[in-house]
Amino acid sequence: METIIQVQHLKKSFKNLEVLHDVHFDIKKGEVVTIIGSSGSGKSTLLRCLNLLERLDDGQILYHGQDILDRHFDVNAYRSKVGMVFQGFNLFNNLTVLENCMIGQIKVLKRNKEEAKQMALKYLEKVGMSAFVNKSSVQLSGGQKQRVAIARALCMSPEVLLFDEPTSALDPEMVGDVLTIMQKKKKEGLTMIVVTHEMAFARDVSSRVVFMDQGVIVEEGTPEQIFEHPQEERTRTFLKRYLQNNESIQ
Amino acid sequence: MSIDFARAWEIFVENIPLFTYGIQMTLLFAVVGTICGFLIGLVIGGIRAIEINEYDSPVSQLLKRFGKLITGFYIWVFRGTPMMVQAMFLYYLLKPALSWTPLVAGLFIISINTGAYMAEIIRAGIQSVDAGQSEAAKSLGMTTGQTLISVIFPQAIKNTFPSIGNQLIVNIKDSSMLNVISVTELYFQTTSVAGSNMKYIECFLVAAVIYLFLTTISTFILNYIEKRMNTVNQSKDFCS
Ligand SMILES: Nc1ncnc2c1ncn2[C@@H]1O[C@H](COP(=O)(O)OP(=O)(O)OP(=O)(O)O)[C@@H](O)[C@H]1O
Ligand SMILES: [Mg+2]
């Protein structure tokens, strides 16, 4: 399979705190990679580096072999190909649902209005938000917002979508809706990188699971390798603690 | 101390053309000053809100610092001195070079004065917009300019609309200070009328009532616009 993104020797600090130490990471076409790990391990920071929302301090990110930090690299074109879905949705508050899905297509992809509208309606339908196209985005519930945010990202015809805990700000009954949409996109062959605390999703949907701890990738492998036969002590501890927490809740 | 209300009414009626002209000029200064000041405020406030990042190249850091310094100086000076003094100083300073009329000078001065206040309002408005909004725009591939125009400014303006609108009210009143450069606005006209009939109390009662009328009407219009801004998205629902 063709490699889309390669991360090499990635380092990132905030002030004196080094958050990512020498991260290596590849993503191939059609893969769904989930990133798991405890809070503060650097998952969001890694994802934000991939979208260039954070500056790297060291290392390289290659997109189809091209260095995305090169001065001549078109960052905006890259971002339109590698979309992002945020934990906090970040729908544009001043725009309607439909406009949220059209603006990037018009401004960045230079599609005409009609084309952009058809595309937006198509994806809003897919995420079950057709009835809300003319609503203001501030009037929606969390789950609805996240579905629109996914539609907005899909409208850009991305090659890769990055999800940062797309369901963790949602009420439990909304989580399923969003995960189902992501599962469908996997079937359609969309490449995704998903930071999540939904272990069931990681186990059932991903083609590869990456476990991060304290700014490094400790272990990666198929869901079976990570969940059934973890090699590293830290992975086992994390999973064990995770299972215990879940049991104590139930 | 006595006010002759009947006389005041007579003075108003006798001098309607003069007062009307004064009202027109006052509104011209208030409206042009507010609109131009708003546009100046968008640019200056935008520059004020720029963040300097440690990873910016030295050149862009320098440019940003320089921009902030200049705009900070402008705001400091124009908010820290009376508009009357600004008017006298700039009018005579630039008269030889521009040979401008009091009208043009007045429009320039009220705009640049309002711009300083607007810049601070808009800077605060921009900073009140959640950082996630511009991150989302970036993640779609939008440029900084596109993000500002389509996402940040509309929200910043909406959030600060009451303060922006208040500048119109302030300008209706403060344009009277431009009388010092002989701009024939309402206050100046009232002085002329009073100078010829010596009825200062009655003349300025007329002026006060007119000013109150103008500011009240403006307040109503601004409140209406504000309400519409807040309901525009809901009303779209009913159209579809
Ligand atoms: N903008 C920032 N400034 C300073 N420190 C930051 C910033 N963003 C993140 N950090 C720090 O970097 C570390 C990693 O944060 P990150 O958000 O990547 O963790 P995470 O794995 O996504 O955690 P969570 O599961 O809680 O979302 C944390 O210690 C955090 O405090
Ligand atoms: Mg996170």
Description:
Chain A has helices at residues 43-50, 75-81, 97-107, 113-126, 142-154, 172-187, 199-205, 223-228, 233-249; strands at 3-14, 17-28, 32-37, 58-63, 66-67, 82-85, 160-164, 191-195, 208-213, 216-221. Chain A is of the alpha/beta class and 250 residues long. In chain A, the strands form 2 sheets. Chain A has a 6-stranded mixed β-sheet, with helices on both faces. A 4-stranded antiparallel β-sheet of chain A has the order 2-1-4-5, with helices on one face. The model of chain A has no long low-confidence stretch (mean pLDDT 92). Chain B is an all-alpha fold and 240 residues long. Chain B is 84% helix and 0% strand. Chain B has helices spanning 5-14, 16-49, 58-80, 83-98, 102-128, 131-139, 144-159, 161-174, 186-197, 200-239. Classes of the chains: A alpha/beta (250), B mainly alpha (240). The interface between A and B is medium-sized, with 33 and 26 residues. The structure holds adenosine-5'-triphosphate (ATP) and magnesium ion (MG). Adenosine-5'-triphosphate (ATP) binds next to helix 1 of chain A.
Features:
heterodimer, A: 250 residues, alpha/beta, 6-stranded mixed beta sheet, 4-stranded antiparallel beta sheet, 9 helices, 40% helix, globular, B: 240 residues, mainly alpha, 10 helices, 0% strand, disordered C terminus, binds adenosine-5'-triphosphate, binds magnesium ion
